[in-house]
Amino acid sequence: MPLRVRLTLWYGSALATVLITFSVVLYVITARNLRDDVDESLKETAATAVRSLEERGFLPLLDEEDLLSQFPELARIDKFFQIFSPSGTITIRSPNIKRYEVPLSQKALETAFLGQSLLETTKYPNEPQLRLISAPITYRGNFLYYIVQVGTSMESIEDTLRHFFILLTVAVPIALAVSLAAGWFLAGRALRPVDAITLAAQRIAGGDLSQRLAMQTAPDEIGRLVETFNNMIGRLEASFRQIRQFTSDASHELRTPLTVMKGETELVLRRARPLEDYHTVLESNLEEIDRMARIVDELLFLSRADMGAVKIELLPVSLEALVEDIHRQATVLGQDRTIEVVLGTIVPARVQGDELRLRELLLNLVENAVKYSNPKGKVTINLITEGQQAIISVTDQGIGIAPDNQHKIFNRFFRTVEARTHTKKGTGLGLAICSWIAETHKGCISVQSELGQGSTFTVTLPLAPRPA
Amino acid sequence: MRVLVIEDETKVGCFIKRALEEESYAVDLCEDGAKGFEMALATNYDLLVVDLMLPSMSGMDILRAVRRERIQTPVLILTAQSQIDQRVKGLDAGADDYLTKPFAIDELLARVRALLRRGVTESFGILQVDDLVLNLATREVTRSGQRIDLTLKEYALLEYLMRHTRRVLTRPMISEHVWNQDFDTFTNVIDVYVNYLRNKIDRGRTKKLIHTIRGSGYMLKAD
Fold first, then answer.
1. How many CB atoms are located within 10 Å of the residue A424 CB?
2. For A250, A287, A461, B72, which has the most beta carbons within 10 A of its beta carbon?
3. Which of residues 19-58 of B touch A (CB under 8 A)?
4. What is the CATH number of domain B121-220?
5. Which pLDDT tens digit goes with each residue over A243-275?
6. In terms of CATH architecture, what is A315-462?
């Protein structure tokens, strides 16, 4: 069931319960109050009549004219009255009752003998109810002379109550209907932004992540929902774009070696050729296979790192020993290309880290420095401490990086045009891995560079706390 | 037919060049976008093969610049991206065809043939002058139904002559379309190859097809 219908129904049933309860209570209270008023009035009238008759030395009277002339207040009352003898026979009765015999009930008679008044209700067919009070008229309080009965028709009260009832039975459903309509309208209005959100969400689910909910962002629940929703889509879009870029880059990097292998192999197979041609192609293919294997390894490492599946074991590592070891390896690398790798300032420094990963990080940086140096260039490695930080820098005099590209080189697969032109080797993933390793050691990696002049890569790692 | 290949991946460029050369095309290879564009302006190529991702000037920029210079040379683009929008953009920018890497050599050669056949579509890829017939698809040459075996260079020269029959073809025109940039203009290589062709096509026949136009060049015609 749609929310709008449910809201309206809930609201309607709550309102109906309240209205009906209220009406019933109102009706009951009104009815009782009206009856109480009648009873009060009857009691007062009876009391007045009894008092008058007793005070004036009421003696047997002949008829009502005598009585009315003696007690004019009786004639003024809007009720009828009867006076019974102690035996229960009617002695006198007021003219406005003549049509009916209203006998004194046995119970009223008994009550009168006890010196008490009694209120009763009696009903004749096709007539409104009658309310009666029977009060004893006594001499000095213990001798019963007469019983005076005052009665009144309940017609006007019944009329009033009937009208009131009709009013309620008509007015309550109308009020309910109007309220339901208003509730339906209000629920619709309150839910309209929800519908808009649903539509937008459907469009977005359809693949268009550039969609946003454009709505007046009042700081209410809907406004907050819209904002949250838009933020969520924004983050989704960004990560989708990143993934798409990454996939496209990865496929490009993998397609190039595939293109080479496929093309060279097909070409050499097109006709019979000298043996050395096949040899050349196989050697070339081997190079490409190595390149793909390296890309796949690095990609796998990065995706495992992204998933948090790469375990880093933090143990004390002596950085100066590590740097000296790397220096020895790099010297060999540099010799082939007449590049000199030298140690600058080296101070003792200990960090908490995974030696294997830190070695990978530093070796990568030094290899890069050698790779992007020009022949007869110089690569300098420094290790210093500053406050609670160990700072390792690798400086080369190589091709350098343009300022625009300096923040991009840590992105996956990004290689500058200069780097691509300088060497075909390189996957564009090394620095992304370096950056990840530095960050998992709570450190960071940065670059200062000038195009054509050289680059300095700086790794900052927190020093291990001194053993107590 | 002379082809310019602009491709920055050295190995890819090399095997494309070699594959095309084995099909008798004269091929120039360039690894840099801007330099490739200059070469495309300087020489009247019959076909450009352009990679989209290039240093200094992207393939798309080369394509647009070439078309802005009103050069109508067919262009085949190579792309590593399989996304449709890249191909659509390339075709809209004036490319005549595209290939997605990695591609099959046979497909590359078929597309190159198709692009170069554009001028002769009416004859279904068959060039004919009198009883001399050249099939562009099979590269088979016959005269009076007799098969004639030609070397790659001879074939390239004959194809060029047959594509431009009844027109005087000067030595610079021939060298521009049949030889690549390594060709040394100060030799008589063209005359030597024309003689080879004469030996295979006209020798022993009463009707000569290859004519020397004194002082200017050569012409292929039936009468």
1. 13
2. A461
3. 19, 22, 53, 55-56
4. 1.10.10.10
5. 887 887 888 788 889 999 999 999 999 989 999
6. 2-Layer Sandwich (3.30)
